[in-house]
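Homework-ish question, so no full write-ups if that breaks the rules, but can someone show me the predicted structure for this set?
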Amino acid sequence: MTAVAPHFDAVIHPSPRLQICGLLAAVDTMEFATVRDRVDVSDSVLSKHVKQLEEAGYVKVSKATVASRQRTSLSLTKEGRRAFDAHVAELRRIAGL
Amino acid sequence: MTAADRQRAAADQLAGLQADREALADRILQPWWYDVALGLLLFGFLASYAFDSPWVTVPAFVLFAAGLGALVAAYRRITGVWIGTPTRAMVLWGGIVLVVLVPALVLAEAYDQRWAMVVAGAVLGVTVGVLSRVWMRAYVAELRSPR
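A: Not a homework solution, just the prediction itself:
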């Protein structure tokens, strides 16, 4: 991982949003349902957190119709990756790692 | 909140992130048939050039493209994620394709040795299957190692 300057990010900090960003940071895209199951929240709660991350420009939401079913996938934007890496660096600094 | 509390909270959050990466590592490795199908699709397409007929090559290309689409869809459905190929792996793959395919095309087109495309298809088919598995295993190991 490239060294980044530690920076606390209030948008990412709440536990579910940190977890969402952590999951998305490891992949290109992740299905909404997969994120929901891992974060262990309802659809509506996840939607609320995703909306906040989307408004901050950190997450991109894509919808596609596959076999007449709508699938929603999530991905981190470049800005989201930068902010997440900086926030993790700040956590590591605080934790003394 | 004391400094010690903040330190513990930060360490807990980092541990949670690592747990998620490890859980993700458990689900992203493609099934064995994915790599076999990928190799067979590429072999079929390249080997079709041996027939020297668009009536074979064009349907083979359509089958190849449709098969790739089906594999991507299956992977996404099974794992719930998509992970792109890293640049270094694409560069390596591009180099291998050039080294194998250019001589085979020269043999096939300039010297009418059509069998060369069957050999090139076999070599590249096996290589893409092996590289796909090796790269994904390396990424799984990376996810499991502490960040």
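Now go work out the reasoning yourself. Hint: The radius of gyration of chain A is 14 Å.
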